[in-house]
Amino acid sequence: MNANTVQTLAATLIFSLAFIAGSLLHRQDATRRRGLVSFSAGAAIAYIFVHLSPELESARNVFVEKTAHRGMLYAWYSVPLSTLLGFVLFYGLDQFVLRLKSRNASAEVEKESAEEKAFWVHIGVLGAYVCLVAYLLVDTLEEGEVRIWLYAVAMGLHFLTVSRGLSREYKKLYERKGVWLPAVCSLGGWAIGLLVDLQKALVAVLLGLVAGAVIVNTLIDELPREKDGRFFPFAFGALFYTVLLLVTVSPPSFKALVEGHLQNLIDRISGPMAFRFVLQPAMAAIFAIRDGLRDARAGRPAYFWEIFTNPGHRRELLREGWKSTGKVFIVAVTIDAVYQYIVLHWFFPLEAVTIAAILAFIPYLILRGPVNRIANLKKKHSANDYPKQR
Prior knowledge:
Order of helices and strands: HHHHHHHHHHHHHH
Radius of gyration: 27 Å
Helix content: over 70%
Oligomer: single chain
Largest sheet: none
Number of helices: 14
Number of strands: 0
Structural class: mainly alpha
Strand content: under 5%
Number of domains: 2
């Protein structure tokens, strides 16, 4: 086997393992694991919109070029239409399965039979989908080692969310009978890719079909009927994988982008309205001292440490921190927007948010916990000294 075959096989094994891992995540479901699933969904969506969308544009050009001699009508729209078709097909599958499960729900036996029929329809279509995704790992329009691993990681994370959703939907039925089918289908798709070489025009259409399917499947799993999706892990997954794609695909461009923004941030120190670098951290520090003393009186642990070690109260803690520093943050963003208008003659939202976070959130996070600890130490010393005075 050559190097490309070995790499694609390793990537295919990631797909198989993702289905097994997804079923295990549901068995031990918790806030942290739900966050991992949302992160995975965000990463998969980032891959589609940031990396695969430009590739779909190239696929459309390939399709038009390869079918020019046929004089096909609407050839320019074939790849976008295949993306739409993938979206509609899997949305239709989800609705069909729901209706199939809801039929004959009057008797327990009939209900179990309807659920099993729905399961095999669902898992059968999913197996074909996984087979297609694995096939496009081998036979695709874009070559290169980086492309293989970007595709493998993004689709592996996507299959993790899909498997977790199936395990939640069908429980033991999926874990006993279904989890191995998509795992085997991924290997089957890889083998077909080695044996069958489709025309590039057809590969372009199949790529669009997969893109539409990934989008709708991610939305179905991330925005479920119980509304247990988590926005921040989803957003962080999307942001993380977007940065990874930008760094990997075009390192010089990303380096120039980062250096430009860093220089803009540094220039603010000596630019107009530099007073904010003293005033706004001071305001955040006042709020941190106030809240730290309140934590000490209530006997609460250090704020920053509790955010990381107490996931059950994390949202409440972050909301409390925002309540204290939100106004400082908003003022910081507003002042930076004015600065950018005067100096840069443009508005860079990420720079404004970064500066606001440095001036408002960072001092608050750094100071609130130590103030709590110092107050607790002072309280202990006072308690120890009191008997001596008596």
